[in-house]
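Quick start: what a row looks like.
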Amino acid sequence: MSNRTFTLAEGQPVADPSVSTTLPTFGGGGLTTLGDTLLIEVLSHFNRERIPERVVHAKAAGAWGEFEVTNDISSLTSAKFLNGVGKKTPILFRLSTTGGEKGSADTVRDVRGFSVKFFTEEGNHDIVGNHIPVFFVRDPVRFPSLNRSHKRHPATNRPDWTMFWDFHANQPESVHALMHLFGTRGIPDSIRRVTGFGVHTFKMVSADGGFRYCKFHFRPTQNTTHFSDQEATRMAGANADFHTQDLWDAIARGDLPVWKLYVQIMEPEQAETYGRALFDITKVWPHKDFPLIEVGQMTLNKNPENYFAEIEQAAFSPSNMVPGIAMTPDPMLQARMFAYPDAQRYRLGVNYTQLPPNRAICPIYAPFERDGMGTMTRNYGGDPNYVRSSLGTGVPSQIVSNVRHTERIERNAILGQNEIPVDDEDFLQPRELWNRVFDECERRKWVANVSETLEDVPDQLRDAVATMFSKVDPRIGQLLDAKAKNSSRL
């Protein structure tokens, strides 16, 4: 690389960027002035070089890659990036913990955010999910409270298990996600071996306007493996950035991480009688009823050249959908479709879509969204900034609208605070997980993991937690009670 001359931000040459302009005094002192543009520019930029970190999902690693279609599903969706075997699409990947701040440890027990941005010829499409298949709540108004209960206590400024369990014991629809979180899946030993789930139900819309419901799944081609609590705790102290380093080093040495993308498909006729689990993200669709259909393969092949520019400024949202994929009446999905872009407008500014990691590769013409801080384009020149102008050059899209179908409103439905009550249905799938998926070793580990968090929790709340899990299986409550009695003797 040829040598480059140091300059100020606007290009003026600088003789020595390590020395400010001063008027020397006795004793090695010096007087600075407002005329030292180098000093003023460096200090003022330093004061502003941090942007607000994400309230959740702040600690993350990411990389660039490519998605390739391995199974044509054009009969299911008109989305071009999913059609035609061999079709390749550039992607940006980001995986994060949820509760911790930017400097926190990678190897904590936590839900991982799993985000992929596809740069398609029809615009950006984002799959923004988690590494477990279900979520803690189904009412979006509880989302901020959920995350606060997993973060720091407002008085002590420390993570607090009493706060954590107080929230969940009073929102028992979270029991399914808790079963996953406190199992071995809760502490991955590598980003390269985590699963990824879109979690929500979406629609796939075919070229003729027909639709089917779908869920997205990413599965690593390597076996999923995990840390024990002891290994994770040791690594959090030895190398808080272990997952970040592991991903970077693997890509650098050519050991490229690979995931297969699958979909589950539900026909509209099946959906009519499927019930609450159609849109309730505390539930899964059983694979025996809705088998995985392979779509393609995602390979990470390039580390970022600059983390801040490419990963910290990356903005993902489930509202980013291309033609052929559409939203559903999942309240949590609809709330996230607002909340995620709004978070990025706050963090990065209203023109965050113009930043390199978010910039679409297809032509953009949105002259009704212009101006604002951080505009980096020609800002549409003198094109009309109002709709239905006879002087502009914009034309309507010829793509058939994919909003040809809506779900029927329930008979006698009333707009109001229609809470879905917690009933036995909320415990059926956790019960299946405990009885049919977990083996005895996993069950013992799960009880130990939960018991450890309950040691300093008030007795009344500990009893409430045991009661909640007893509804999954009475044995869980018995094991938790036994662990608590043993701990109290010690």
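That is the whole record. Residues 331-348 form the longest helix (18 residues). The CA atoms of residues 110 and 186 lie 6 Å apart.
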